[in-house]
Amino acid sequence: MPQYISDIPELSTTELNYIEDNLRVFYSENRYGPNPQLSFIFGHHGLYATDADFLGHEGISWLPGLADWGIGGTELQNKFRNWQVSSYTVILILKKNFFDSSAVQLSTGTLLDGQYRIVAVDNNGVSTTVTSIDRWPVVMITSPVDKHLGSANPYAFVVPRTKTNPIRALIFNDPQYCSIDFVSFAVDDAEIGAMQRVSDNPADRIYNVWEGFWGTTNVSGEHKVDVSVKCSDQPAPITNAITVDVEEALDLISLPNGREAFSYPPSVFPNASANTSIINPIGVGSVAAGGNMFSLRLFLSQFSGPVDIYGAFRSSNDPRHC
Known about the structure:
The protein is mainly beta. The chain contains one helix and 21 strands. The chain is 5% helix and 35% strand.
């Protein structure tokens, strides 16, 4: 669908009509047999290779001639062959780099008759769901990313400990099957709150993105996140569930000068001593350690104008500041 590639992450009526028209042609020509198994891949910002420039900007590419199989995609590069086509089966292989052994394979050959898979790719995140024809609505959580996509998702990220973590889902609906009453999300089977349709896009777009916010300041470890859609004419809600990891808790300690600091547990700073602390942090998103190199991500949404950031490293026997 190269003529319809767009930088706006929703599908337009033109794009949807293009897909529907081609599906009708496939059906009329019996091109893929009486019960085709389909995967729809919508890519807005593709996957970035983590340590190999030769893969190009995206870790999802396509083989020459795949258009003959009715397969298309956006922002795809012809540098890394990770599509395989055999016996009308498409296998999508997700890798962080060419030598990554933790690749995830999504194969339409595993689907039952009447099922299809949707895969969404955006900003280094991969989401997928399997549903059945005439089962509406279709719900797919896109943020956060499921850590158990397949056996292990190489692009899953740890959810930061913040007051407003966005929970986002794509909801595709056919009004003749479902009149949506409300959309909500739950964590570990406990409902957290309602979700609202995101409508800050041009008026000619179809608003399929829904959003809610999850406060994780007092949460850590592994959790299940569900998004549920309740239809007025259906007795049971339609749900989609993922598993995520939240950053480990930070222990508040006191320093001799009276200032407060957050002390990181060994699992976060595996190479740091027990006395390593970050002084007066204004926000922490993610922390990485490698030898004596530490990094953290600060959220500065509460500030405006120039901001001075002061970082310090302190150990029990060699106080140093930078």
